[in-house]
Design a protein that fits this description.
Blueprint: E1 2-6, E2 18-22, E3 32-41, H1 44-50, E4 62-63, E5 69-72, E6 77-80, E7 83-84, E8 98-99, E9 111-115, E10 119-121, H2 128-132, H3 134-148, E11 156-159, H4 165-176, E12 180-184, H5 188-197, E13 201-203, E14 213-218, H6 225-230, E15 232-240, H7 254-259, E16 263-266, H8 272-285, E17 291-296, H9 300-309, E18 315-319
Parallel strand pairs: 11-12, 11-14, 12-13, 14-15, 15-16, 17-18
Antiparallel strand pairs: 1-2, 1-4, 3-5, 3-9, 3-18, 5-6, 6-10, 7-8
Helix pairs in contact: 3-4, 3-8
Length: about 325
């Protein structure tokens, strides 16, 4: 079957490790289902995999991609939850939990196999491309907002780094839930697009906000950490799920954290139930993901290059 996969990792130019070509189709496995992929979306996780983070050379070639929507063996339209073994389904004794592409072949292929329990029905109102955007970036944003930050309608939230998949999702979800949303970006065009998505205001990183916010969603890391901490009201919550600019900020702001009784929460993998709730939220509110580019899988290198350059706004989707 045709696939986009990592053939080499850790190269000085990581994208040179990406290959397109034929690989064996996934073999049947008890408790697992085979999905014919209709659409799959790109995440920063895929770039990190090419850099050798979370993926080792002995597992190559590894089909990349954690997100997909397609059709299962019974003809059902489904969305793939990418965390294998989170609820203990589909694993043999001794197998450990992981996300697709770390141990198990990913979604950038004509077919993918996952534990049957990882399949969630695709709502008919969502296209395959829209549904394929949700399981990683959008689900991460959903968990950060509603499970970890526990924001409510009327609260205010700062989203750092408008433009990335998680940040774009967070702006859209927060606005749909009745929150006041502030966003940051170095790029004036991305700030304008954040406003178009419904942000109350969009400012340069580090700029003073009109008022302290109830919660901050942090995926940028070192470059924005101090600003995130200083933007919170007393007793506010900072949720972090990534650190694209590094995990060692120059100022940890510990004094401000304890004096203002702030809460710092890490957020990582979300559950299948949260994915089901996200799909229901999108269906009920009419919320849809922002798609930057849709490309055939045969043009996957173009999508990887666009994400690597940071020029995208929203999700990059590959179709089959």
């Amino acid at each position: 079957m045709f696939a986009a996969y990592a053939a080499e990792i850790g190269l000085p130019e990581p994208l040179r490790g990406l290959r397109l070509g034929e690989l064996p189709a996934p073999r049947p496995r008890p408790g697992w289902s085979r999905v014919t992929v209709r659409a799959a979306s790109l995440n920063h996780h895929d770039l990190w995999s090419l850099r050798g983070v979370g993926l080792t050379a002995e597992r190559l070639p590894m089909i990349l991609g954690t997100d997909a929507a397609g059709v299962d063996e019974d003809g059902n339209e489904v969305v793939v939850h990418p965390v294998v073994g989170l609820a203990g389904h589909g694993l043999a004794p001794g197998e450990s939990r992981s996300i697709l592409t770390e141990k198990y072949q990913g979604t950038f292929a004509e077919q993918v196999t996952v534990p049957t329990a990882n399949l969630v029905p695709k709502p008919p109102g969502l296209s395959f491309a829209e549904a394929a955007c949700l399981p990683t970036a959008w689900l991460t944003a959903y968990r950060m907002l509603f499970t970890q930050a526990r924001v409510r309608p009327g609260d205010s939230v700062l989203v750092q780094g408008a433009g990335g998949g998680v940040a774009t999702a967070a702006i859209t979800l927060a606005r749909a839930a009745g929150l006041r949303v502030y966003a940051t970006s170095r790029d004036p065009l991305k700030r304008a697009r954040a406003l178009a998505l419904g942000a109350t205001d969009a400012v340069e990183p580090g700029a003073r906000l009109p008022h302290p916010v109830d919660a901050v969603l942090e995926t940028v890391g070192a470059a924005t950490w101090s600003h995130s901490v200083r933007s919170l009201r007393r007793g506010g919550t900072l949720v972090i799920s990534g650190a694209t600019t590094g995990d060692r900020p120059a100022h940890a702001e510990l004094t401000r954290v304890f004096r203002r009784e702030l809460t710092v929460i890490g957020s990582t993998v979300a559950t299948r139930d949260e994915l089901t709730s996200l799909l229901a939220f999108c269906t009920t509110t009419g919320t849809r993901p922002t798609i930057d580019h849709t490309l055939p899988l045969t043009e996957a290198p173009e999508g990887f290059t666009r994400m690597s350059s940071g020029t995208h706004f929203g999700k990059i989707v590959f179709t089959l």
